[in-house]
Amino acid sequence: MLTKIITYTDYNGLERTENFYFNLSKSELTELELTTEGSLTAALNKMVNANDISDLSRMFKRILLLAYGEKSPDGRRFMKSEEISLAFSQTPAYDQLFMELFTGTDSMIEFINAVIPKEAAEAAAKAAQTSASPLMMPLA
Asked: Which residues contact 44 (CB under 8 A, 6 or more apart)?
């Protein structure tokens, strides 16, 4: 799980600092991999290599909103829903985070590696050492 502390100005002009939580479970990562034409890893690599900013921004938004959730007070649940994702996407914090991560390939890769399961991140790091491909996200 990744906790991002974001300071932003809300729509009332008030500066706020809040914690935002992001995580992809093994099942969510598997579903993303299996439902993306040609696999998520291949699609992301193709977009990066082709410098396809349009498709990359759509895919990154999908990953960012799928990873976003709210921790239950007791820490036993990580609550996600379309409503929770939509509400987050309508905040200045989302806008700020999206632009921060999307304008730097390294930032985007670091974010993705931080929200995927630890085993998948370790496999990705190992694969990246043996590959010229900028993005590698093998399943654990």
From this structure: 56, 59, 135, 137
pTM: 0.80
CA dist., res. 41 & res. 137, Å (int): 6
In sequence order, which residues have a C-beta less than 8 Å from that of residue 61 and are 6 or more positions away?
Answer: 98
Q: CA-to-CA distance for 131 and 133, rounded, in angstroms?
A: 5
Distance of alpha carbon 22 from alpha carbon 36, whole angstroms = 20
The separation between the first and the last C-alpha atoms of the chain, rounded to the nearest angstrom, is 16
Mean pLDDT of the chain: 86
Distance CA(68)–CA(98), nearest Å, equals: 12
Asked whether residue 80 carries a pLDDT value surpassing 60, the answer given is yes
The structural domains of the chain, with segments of one domain joined by +, span 2-129
Give the distance from CA 63 to its chain's centroid: 5
- Mind listing the pLDDT tens digit for each residue in 18-53? 999 999 999 998 888 888 888 887 888 888 888 888
